[in-house]
Automatic annotation (TrEMBL):
Domain of life: Bacteria
Taxonomic lineage of the native organism: Bacteria, Bacillati, Bacillota, Bacilli, Lactobacillales
Molecular function per GO: transferase activity, transferring alkyl or aryl (other than methyl) groups
UniProt keyword terms in alphabetical order: Amino-acid biosynthesis, Cysteine biosynthesis, Pyridoxal phosphate, Transferase
Protein name listed in UniProt: Cysteine synthase family protein
Species this chain originates from: Companilactobacillus pabuli
Record domain Tryptophan synthase beta chain-like PALP: where: 7-291
Family: Belongs to the cysteine synthase/cystathionine beta-synthase family.
Cofactor field: pyridoxal 5'-phosphate
């Protein structure tokens, strides 16, 4: 495959039918988003956030892009901004993986840390403060920007439909951080499969099922506030997954399927297996594996 730039390699990731005996002989299909050039599902978002800002005139020549991020969005935004020679500042809570931060810097972004105890809410506040101080700056703000679910509605959802070649989807089971991936893919898939159940996944320590907010080891999913995008779809249920179970499946995926997947993928698989218990025989679940385990090796993901 000859390409003229790295952006042409974003998307068109494989959809892997897992070799797993799930309850009720349910089939589980996982979209392998670690195959994107920046290593995650968020490359799709980076491009859409930057191109949406350019189209709307919010980004012009030399606009400084400022974004609060747990890491993968930062990599996606830094990659996309490079195409337009835009400077990037990423506001990252300290706790997130070193690998992601090293990659953001390698792409040319500057990192500003906020205390882990203030969570993503602290990073959002800091990004807005910086934007008020820096002339000609723009905060795409993935947590509220409709260009976030739109990125997945336009690319990831249609790809899954095309990959499946007519196979029906009984349920989508996908994690939520900003909620953009889950909402955009749900909207695209439900146009094709109106009866599809939309089930999202959160770690213990996230609030969607009414739990108390606390720290968790799973990275990338979990919310401190209900994503505003959730208003535009019907959610059938939320599966809350513990760190231990997610990391069990991270190891299982490497050892049994040859798949290096991060902890939000492990959580998604655990949730898919749980959902399978209540589905009719031979149903089809689609899930999304957002990134690779390789960006969490320093955190002992396989220990
Ligand atoms: N998994 C990982 C590893 C992520 O980085 C993210 C994005 N924070 C997600 C899942 C969730 O994606 P979204 O923000 O679209 O809900």
């Amino acid at each position: 495959m000859l390409v003229n730039n790295i952006y042409q390699t974003i998307g068109n990731t494989p959809l892997l039918k897992l070799d797993i005996t799930a309850p009720n002989d349910v089939n589980i299909y996982a979209k392998l988003e670690m195959f994107n050039p920046g290593g995650s599902v968020k490359d799709r978002l980076g491009v859409n956030l930057i191109e949406d800002g350019l189209k709307k005139g919010k980004i012009t020549k030399n606009t400084t892009i400022i974004e609060p991020t747990a890491g993968n969005t930062g990599i996606g935004v830094a990659l996309a901004a490079q195409k337009y020679h835009l400077p990037v500042k990423l506001v990252v809570p300290e706790k997130f993986s070193q690998e992601k931060q090293i990659l953001m810097k390698a792409l040319g972004a500057q990192i500003i840390h906020t205390p882990s105890s203030q969570g993503i809410t602290g990073a959002i506040k800091k990004a807005q403060e910086l934007a008020s101080e820096i002339e000609n700056s723009y905060v795409p703000l993935q947590f509220r920007n409709p260009a976030n679910p739109e990125a997945y509605y336009k690319t990831l959802g249609p790809e899954i439909i095309a990959d499946l070649k007519g196979i029906n989807v009984t349920a989508l089971v996908a994690g939520s951080g900003s909620g953009g991936t889950f909402v955009g893919v749900t909207q695209a898939l439900q146009e094709k499969y109106p009866d599809m159940q939309a089930i999202t996944v959160e770690p213990e320590g996230s609030i969607l099922n009414g739990g108390v907010e606390h720290d968790h080891r799973i990275e990338g999913i979990g919310v401190e506030f209900v994503p505003p995008f959730f208003n535009s779809i019907n959610i059938d249920s939320v599966e809350t997954i513990s760190d231990d179970i997610a990391f069990y499946y991270v190891k299982w995926l490497a050892k049994n399927q040859g798949v290096f997947a991060g902890s939000s993928s492990g959580a998604a698989l655990a949730a898919a297996l749980r959902v399978a218990e209540s589905l009719p025989d031979n149903s089809n679940i689609v899930t999304i594996f957002p990134d690779s385990s390789e960006r969490y090796l320093s955190k002992g993901i396989y220990d």
